[in-house]
Amino acid sequence: MAYSMKVKKHTCIVCGRTFPEGQGIVLRRANIELTFHSKSCLTKFFRLFIENLDEGSFKKAAKETIKSFEEQRKARMKTKVI
Ligand SMILES: [Zn+2]
Q: Greater confidence, 79 or 4?
């Protein structure tokens, strides 16, 4: 066939389901690709992931992440007041 649709497929690393590019959740960092077909698979992965992190890295990453969401929340509250 001269004309074929080539859509990149991903495989969910949690349940093994395949899904096309543009669907699901794909996270890339440090040459590692994390692919999840749904939020529930991402949640499953995340729970185990934080257990596997060493305590120091976890504390640092958790604090930083909480802080950035706190800042986002504050920013949203400010815009609501106006
Ligand atoms: Zn999945």
A: 79
Share of the chain above pLDDT 70, in %: 90
pTM of the model: 0.77
Could you give the CA distance from residue 4 to residue 79 in angstroms, rounded to a whole number?
48
Torsion, Cα 55 61 67 71, to 10 degrees, reads: -170
Backbone angles phi, psi at 38, to 5 degrees: -150, 165
Task: Measure the CA dihedral 27/29/32/34, to 10°.
Answer: -20
How far does the centroid of ligand 1 lie from the alpha carbon of residue 19, in Å?
Answer: 9
Reduced to 3 states (helix: H, G, I; strand: E, B; else coil), residue 4 is coil
Cα 10 to ligand 1 centroid, rounded to whole Å: 10
What is the Cα 35 distance to its own chain's centre? Answer: 8
